[in-house]
Amino acid sequence: MKSDWQKSWFTVWTFVRINTKRFFRDRTAIFFTIGFPLIFLFVFGSLNSNNSSVSFNVALINNSSSEFSKEFTKNLQESKTIKVNKEVTSLDDAKDRMSRSELDAAIILPDDFGKVQGNNTYPSGQAQVVYTQNNQSSGAALTSVLQSQFQQINQGLVPTVSPFTVKSEQLNENSLSAFDYTFAGLLGFAIIGMGIFGPINVFPELKKMGILRRLSTTPLRVWQYFVSTMIGQAVIGLLSIAIMFVIAILVFHLEVVGNWLELAVFIIFSIAMILGIGLALGGWAKNERQVAPLANIVVFPMMFLSGTFFPRFLMPEWLQNISAFLPLTPVIDGIRLITTEGAHLINILPQVGLVAGWMVIIYIIAFKVFRWE
Amino acid sequence: MVEVKNLKKRYGDKQAVDGVSFTVKKGEIFGILGPNGAGKTTTLEMMETLRPIDGGSVKIDGIDVAKHPQKVKYLIGVQPQSPAFQDKTRLTEVIELFAAAYGEKVDPMEFLRDVNLEEKAKNYVEDLSGGQKQRLSITTALVHGPKVFFLDEPTTGLDPQARRNLWDLIEQVRDKGISVILTTHYMDEAEVLCDRIAVMDNGKIVAIDTPRNLIQQLLDRGFKKKQEVQQASLEDVFIDLTGKALRDGS
């Protein structure tokens, strides 16, 4: 004879097994839990990967026919820092585009640029950088970039002595890139998608069809139903997040320095905690109309203040102090600290504690407000 | 097997169920009839542990429903008015899930065979017709071997063939010694299927007996049908007891 405890877990396990199978038969569900976050990953990932190096969009208007100017144009077009828009050939067109911020500046080479003047043995000329008021900093930066390039050229043409020079050196230490912040935020977004939007869409539907009510005539307990949902979501969530990691590492060169096991444990707890919010909202609501406004009130602050789409350190300090206590904030911070800074669970006790605290509060509420119909 | 005493339920200022008492024996099909709003479904739901009981008591196999709802759930099987299942679930999995809710592992094919659905075993539930869903639902309600089986308007919306098929199934359940309690709006169904019926109106039971006796009692009071002398259907009894006025929601 099986003990009551074994029977209880047999119930939970069977629900997990069959519901997980059902999930993988449902293409829409797969798209929204796995595909959707990936789309965001690609969009935000490629937005951020440009930020790592500075570049200028410029127009190059060459009015000169000299060999030197041709050579110079070719070199400029191959440069990574300066992106030359080849469509633009006239100054008027360039001005027009600058006013729309399509271009940062225009470089004009006058008709005598690169010609040998008078008795000189070497070519000379003056390039002109044109920029609008709004683009003063890029204009100035571009001028100095060109200046240093000309200096190198000048050195080759007319050797001079340079008593003072500057040498820059890149440190080999890791610093957080914008993508590291974005990626942790996107994981937070994926967890919200699974944990909150999943239950609040499914539960009202199950209630409307009377499926939960039918279950309530069986000895099935609310905790068994919750735990089986939790295990199922954690499995699917880990899978979805693992795929995001693979793509982040392969495509966006994410470097994971933390311990994978600790990361998985932290993510499972985070999914369980956030799922509690979905269970509370979906379990309470009688229908879709009831749940939608409440879900928005709960989800939107987390979406914008917890560091999902832009890092919290950009916010004013008072807002950071408040948003630090939102349930999703320790999740995103914790994931980022483990992944990119190599923190161990013991180092992120504030985050772990906050997740645990929210877990207790959220599940007490979820059990209290749950309705089978 | 089932003992209902002075059962009461109040919604706001409406007394939905007003002192209902009856008993159902082992292996008996007991029908509850009545117009919409008479309190049939509420009575059933209180017996099924779905609604809190305001007053009176329900005992199933000697166990008080209000005091030990969890124990009672092992003794009852419930067929909802419109059975629904989650999409993308195979029939065998539906049986497994419901058995698991009782902590039991069963052979799903055996239960599908009982209701003639073994050929659909690997199909998804959304491929079933209305009648097939009803049959699946009945067999899921019996996976744990209950002693009492509740059905709320089981044949509403089914075609005549599916209805008769369901009557056969319900009789088979009764023949296994299970007490069956059902509600219905169809008088022919009650007349053919039910061993005894209770007619409810305004939250009270206004008559309780076998269909044959109820018809005889009406005839004894001098009731005559306009065209056919000495003949009356159960429908006549029903209308005589509860009046002709159209009710809310009907």
What would your notes on this structure say?
Chain A is mainly alpha-helical and 373 residues long. Chain A folds into 2 domains: 4-49 and 177-369, no CATH class; 56-153, abc type-2 transporter like domain (abc type-2 transporter like fold), CATH 3.40.1710.10. Chain A has 13 helices and 6 strands. Chain A has helices at residues 4-25, 27-49, 67-78, 91-99, 136-157, 178-208, 211-216, 222-252, 260-284, 288-305, 317-323, 328-341, 349-369, and strands at 56-62, 82-84, 105-109, 115-116, 123-124, 128-130. The longest helix of chain A has 31 residues, at 178-208. The mean pLDDT of chain A is 86. Chain B is of the alpha/beta class. Chain B contains 9 helices and 10 strands. Chain B has helices at 40-47, 69-73, 91-101, 108-114, 130-140, 160-175, 187-193, 211-220, 234-242; strands at residues 2-11, 14-24, 29-33, 55-60, 63-64, 76-79, 148-152, 179-184, 196-201, 204-209. The mean pLDDT of chain B is 88. Chain A binds chain B through residues 2, 4, 7-8, 10-11, 14-15, 18, 21-22, 25-26, 206, 209-211, 213-220, and chain B through 48-50, 70, 73-74, 76, 78, 80-89, 93, 96-98, 100-105.
Tags for this model:
heterodimer; A: 373 residues; mainly alpha; abc type-2 transporter like fold; 2 domains; 4-stranded mixed beta sheet; two-stranded antiparallel sheet; 6 strands; B: 250 residues; alpha/beta; 6-stranded mixed beta sheet; 4-stranded antiparallel beta sheet; 9 helices; globular
Shape of chain B: globular
Average pLDDT of chain B: 88
Beta-strand residue fraction of chain A? 5-15%
Counting helices, strands and paired strands, the structural category of chain B is: alpha/beta
Low-confidence regions of chain A: none
Count of DSSP-assigned helices of chain B: 9
The helix content of chain B, as a percent range, equals 25-40%
Order of helices and strands of chain A: HHEHEHEEEEHHHHHHHHH
Helix content of chain A: 55-70%
Which overall shape of chain A is indicated by the principal axes computed on the Cα atoms? elongated
Low-pLDDT sequence parts of chain B = none
Number of helices of chain A: 13
Element string of chain B (H = helix, E = strand)? EEEHEEHEHHHEHEHEEHH
Rounded to the nearest angstrom, the radius of gyration of chain A is 29 Å
- Give the structural class of chain A: mainly alpha
- Across the major sheet of chain A, the strand order is 2-1-3-6
